[in-house]
Amino acid sequence: MAEALSSEPFPLETTAEGVIRVRGTRVTLDTVWAAFKDGATTEEIVQQYPALSLADAYQVIGYCLRHPSVVDAYLAKRTATADEIRRSIESRWQPEGIRDRLLARRQ
Known about the structure:
The protein is mainly alpha-helical. The chain has a single domain, classed as Orthogonal Bundle (Arc Repressor Mutant, subunit A), CATH 1.10.10.10. It has five helices and two strands; from the N terminus they run ββααααα. The chain has a two-stranded antiparallel sheet. Helix 1 crosses helix 3 and helix 2 crosses helix 3. It is elongated, with a radius of gyration of 19 Å. The model has no long low-confidence stretch (mean pLDDT 91).
């Protein structure tokens, strides 16, 4: 009976860049949690991301439900980083008129 109670390794890992992914996949915590918050069931999430196992998806969602403040802080940091990157890119290359500039290059 002791074998039935052995613990599984936690399915989340942090990359060198600070991105939390489901171990063994490129699926991020952000992706799983956003899909769940948008109303997708765990089974639907696994169908959308076949690299995920059902057990890992349940563990990730369980972690997010148990640690909302940690997850919210992580997501806020990711959003701030994305906004900073976007501002940096847009300061070098203005997004307005990009379609016209790209079409002009073709000619």
